[in-house]
Amino acid sequence: MTQMTDRPTPDTPTRDVLLDCRDVSLAFGNVQALVDVSITSRAGEITALVGDNGAGKSTLVRCVAGIHRPDSGQILFDGAATNFHSPEDAREAGIETVHQNLALVEDLTVWQNLFLNREIVRRLGPVALLDRRAMRDRSREMVSALAVNVPAVGSRVRRLSGGQRQAVAICRAAGFSSKLVIMDEPTAALGVQETARVEELILRLRDEGHALLVISHNFEQVMRLSHQVWVMRAGRCVGGRRTADTTGEEIVALVTGALGG
Asked: Which CATH superfamily groups domain 17-102+162-256?
């Protein structure tokens, strides 16, 4: 079967390609984690990244998010080559990541987690004071805008359900002018109802114009939500398909190696 990589050619418009990873490679000592990986993600679309554990999915998104720097290859974002030295650099460019562990502080409130490392301050001469009221008000606006099923923004995170915690992490990622939201297994530990709520939130972000790059082991979810699927195996990208042009069975065959890219 002919590979359908969705990679722009000289005759293909590239204006809607937001993220373009080209031949990205990365090794940790003697372990080659990524080998010449090339994927794209389009603005206003949900792009899925699938593969077995150890395939290199999380390593690739950590390169995109500024956590790792590739040994070779190039990552272009919004048409420009990136040179991220940290996740803060990626955030400033418009890339937000919702990690599988969510990176929430349980003893802080919802609004404190939303503004962690992004605190609003007001200055009185040489003194900088936290503007708690502004952060609480802005947090209510963020939660309300996404219709997130979260208690009062003054609630402590440790009192929230798994789905509510996931919603807070997604709200934090989407609430600060992000162009691309990366999600690593966003519904892995959730029940059926909470998974449905998080999927609704993902679709809402797409409808608002965000690009989403989602790592998932749930192939039914991938086929239901995504526009493009990239398959990784043993540190390589072995195939790409437009979701409308493939089947779950074909994706599984690519993941397992039963079908070549």
From this structure: P-loop containing nucleotide triphosphate hydrolases (3.40.50.300)
